[in-house]
Automatic annotation (TrEMBL):
<feature type="transmembrane region" description="Helical">
    <location>
        <begin position="205"/>
        <end position="226"/>
    </location>
</feature>
<keyword id="KW-0812">Transmembrane</keyword>
<comment type="similarity">
    <text>Belongs to the major facilitator superfamily. Proton-dependent oligopeptide transporter (POT/PTR) (TC 2.A.17) family.</text>
</comment>
<feature type="transmembrane region" description="Helical">
    <location>
        <begin position="491"/>
        <end position="513"/>
    </location>
</feature>
<feature type="transmembrane region" description="Helical">
    <location>
        <begin position="362"/>
        <end position="384"/>
    </location>
</feature>
<feature type="transmembrane region" description="Helical">
    <location>
        <begin position="533"/>
        <end position="556"/>
    </location>
</feature>
<feature type="transmembrane region" description="Helical">
    <location>
        <begin position="405"/>
        <end position="424"/>
    </location>
</feature>
<dbReference type="InterPro" id="IPR000109">
    <property type="entry name" value="POT_fam"/>
</dbReference>
<keyword id="KW-0472">Membrane</keyword>
<keyword id="KW-1133">Transmembrane helix</keyword>
<protein>
    <submittedName>
        <fullName>Protein NRT1/ PTR FAMILY 1.2-like</fullName>
    </submittedName>
</protein>
<dbReference type="Pfam" id="PF00854">
    <property type="entry name" value="PTR2"/>
</dbReference>
<feature type="transmembrane region" description="Helical">
    <location>
        <begin position="91"/>
        <end position="113"/>
    </location>
</feature>
<dbReference type="InterPro" id="IPR036259">
    <property type="entry name" value="MFS_trans_sf"/>
</dbReference>
<feature type="transmembrane region" description="Helical">
    <location>
        <begin position="62"/>
        <end position="84"/>
    </location>
</feature>
<comment type="similarity">
    <text>Belongs to the major facilitator superfamily. Phosphate:H(+) symporter (TC 2.A.1.9) family.</text>
</comment>
<feature type="transmembrane region" description="Helical">
    <location>
        <begin position="133"/>
        <end position="159"/>
    </location>
</feature>
Length: 583
């Protein structure tokens, strides 16, 4: 009730924006999430069954799909901020997602758009034609473009409707909005991996793909119905921060022969409105050349701005580039944890062959086991926020209980434990399948409960909760205030790079282990393959990554106490949780 009273303050300006726009925006995001995540859950089964792909090939393709979707999120955010505006970005993205889902639904409806099933008599599998693959990949491409525009822009577009700087309660109103937004996202994800998966299992792919397409159509329709009510913030006309970083690098390279002075700061260029005069840092001093004014008459315009921004940059731009370079080593430690999380296709193949009953008359669909990860993530965040933070802050002196770096380390350890546990469980499952005579039948049901996989999903949920939030807070503390949005972007790009690494790793392991006519570790027949060996390999890489993380931490000891950020920035606000990736 208190949250609703707070949100009512927004109705001071009834013409545009306000609380009345929230149903359209939240329904748009919720339906898009249910539709998208519902399709992703069982895509590996679809491409293996109707496109005769191996488990390794299907996993690699879906990994590339995830990499494209996450990578385009950065492109979508930049395009919305500086060119399209968030309203058009969400509208175009929603339509693109709808087109992709309709094309995918057509592949299930029209037999000619998918390859023939394997011949049971001659044991011959007809591979998909170029046209069939083109149609499939086009549907995935449209959905990736849509996700790249909708997901980074939808939540901030909703905040635009409630923004009212004249209202002293606006901060609390926005905080309430973000809480409700993320709550609806969590509920939508759970519905996607349970209800949509159940429909696919019960009614088949035609209905299973048709329902998400209908939900996405309703998502587009609801968003457009609310169009006359929206406060449509125009794209920024100020300089693009990302382009500014490239300009600083180019300017430093062009002036690589310019002499550096350690005392004269009058020759440095600053923004005309830059209030605080600070010397550039001594880290990466070679980059300081980018802000040196060599000839004021040539380098500066009459109004004091740089005549050529690719040859002269401000101190702020140079310091932003330095902060980004400093963040790269720690950013690279996140790849392995996301690789561990992205190898879910094999877990689906495992649980599909096991007893999934919780009760005699209640069976969990194989593609719905990720709900245990989501549940563990939610419980851990609530437990940490409400119970552990008050206790730990008294002993650590950290307002958030544990430092961001410590939480990132805990996430890496939890992820490593999860993959090691997966390897042990798969070794037991495979041994039982062989003992029961199912070596040649990958679809046979093994007399083993799939609930053995719940702990690994729970550990992955805890890993995501600790590492994800800690990483965004770490980057937020490291970057200057003008780069706050980059914190979320680096997380998103990190997941994209991890998906790409995972796809390359799967393809490489499949090729290397199948040479000489041997059965691949990642064979579609998981009873003949050795997925457990692959999981042990991931565990080893995760262990090496953790050692690398400890090495990198030595360079960030000054940041580990959470006070690294400039005091004038740190006092203004804490980490903005709008920046968190919608995992």
């Amino acid at each position: 009730m208190e949250s609703e009273r707070e949100l009512l303050f927004v109705e001071e300006h009834p013409r545009k924006g306000g609380l009345r726009t929230m149903p359209f925006i939240i329904v748009n995001e919720s339906f898009e999430r249910v539709a998208s995540f519902g399709l992703q859950s069982k895509m590996i089964i679809y491409v293996m069954t109707y496109y005769n792909m191996s488990a390794a090939t299907g996993t690699s393709i879906l990994g590339l799909w995830g990499a494209l979707s996450n990578g385009l999120a950065l492109f979508g955010a930049i395009t919305a901020d500086f060119y399209l505006g968030r309203y058009r970005a969400v509208a175009y993205g929603s339509i693109s997602t709808l087109i992709g889902m309709i094309i995918l639904w057509l592949t299930a409806m029209i037999p000619q758009l998918k390859s023939l099933s394997c011949s049971e008599i001659h044991h011959v599998c007809n591979g998909p034609t170029t046209l069939q693959l083109a149609v499939l990949f086009s549907s995935l491409g449209f959905m990736s473009i849509g996700a790249g525009f909708v997901r980074p822009c939808s939540i901030i577009f909703g905040a635009d409707q409630l923004e009212d700087k004249k209202n002293p309660e606006n901060g609390r109103i926005l905080e309430s909005y973000f809480n409700w937004y993320y709550a609806s996202s969590g509920v939508s994800t759970i519905l996607a991996v349970t209800l949509i998966v159940y429909i696919q299992d019960l009614y088949g792919w035609k209905v299973g793909f048709g329902v998400p397409a209908i939900l996405m159509f309703l998502s587009v329709l609801m968003f457009q119905i609310g169009s006359p009510l929206y406060n449509k913030v125009k794209a920024k006309t100020t300089e693009n921060l990302v382009i500014g970083l490239f300009q600083a690098a180019v300017a430093a390279f062009r002036k690589r022969n310019t002499r550096l002075s350690s005392t004269n700061y009058d020759e440095l260029y600053r923004w005309p409105l830059e209030s605080e005069v600070l010397p550039p840092s001594k880290d990466f001093r070679c980059l300081n050349r980018a802000c040196i004014i060599e000839d004021p008459r040539k380098d500066l315009n009459p109004d004091g701005s740089a005549s050529n921004p690719w040859n002269l940059c401000s101190v702020e731009q140079v310091e932003s580039l330095k902060a980004l370079i400093k963040a790269l080593p720690m950013w690279s430690t996140c790849f392995m944890i996301f690789v561990d999380m992205n190898i879910f296709s094999f877990s689906l193949l495992q649980t599909k062959t096991m007893d999934r009953h919780i009760f005699p008359h209640l069976q969990v669909p194989a593609a719905s086991f990720s709900v245990f990860m989501i549940t563990a993530l939610t419980i851990w965040i609530a437990f940490y926020d409400r119970v552990l933070i008050p206790l730990l802050s008294k002993y650590t002196g950290q307002p958030r209980g544990l430092s961001p770096v410590t939480r990132m380390g805990i996430g890496l350890i939890a992820s490593s434990m999860s993959i090691a546990l997966s390897a042990i469980t798969e070794s037991i499952r495979r041994q039982r399948a062989i003992e029961e005579g199912h070596e040649d039948d990958p679809n046979a049901l093994v007399n083993m409960s799939a609930m053995w996989f719940v702990p690994q999903y729970a550990l992955l949920g805890i890993a995501e909760a600790t590492h994800g939030v800690g990483q965004v807070e770490f980057f937020y503390a490291l970057f200057p205030k003008s780069m706050s949005s980059i914190a979320s972007s680096m997380y998103t790009v990190g997941t994209a790079v991890s998906s790409l690494i995972g796809s390359i790793l799967v393809s490489s392991v499949d090729w290397l282990t199948s040479t000489g006519g041997k059965t691949s570790w990642l064979s579609s027949n998981i009873n003949q393959g050795h997925i457990d060996y692959f999981f042990w390999l991931l565990s080893f890489f995760s262990f090496l990554n953790f050692l690398y993380f400890l090495l990198v931490c030595r360079f960030y000891e000054s940041l580990n106490d959470g006070r690294s950020r400039s005091s004038h920035v740190a006092k203004e606000k804490e980490c903005d949780y709008r920046l968190l990736h919608e995992s």
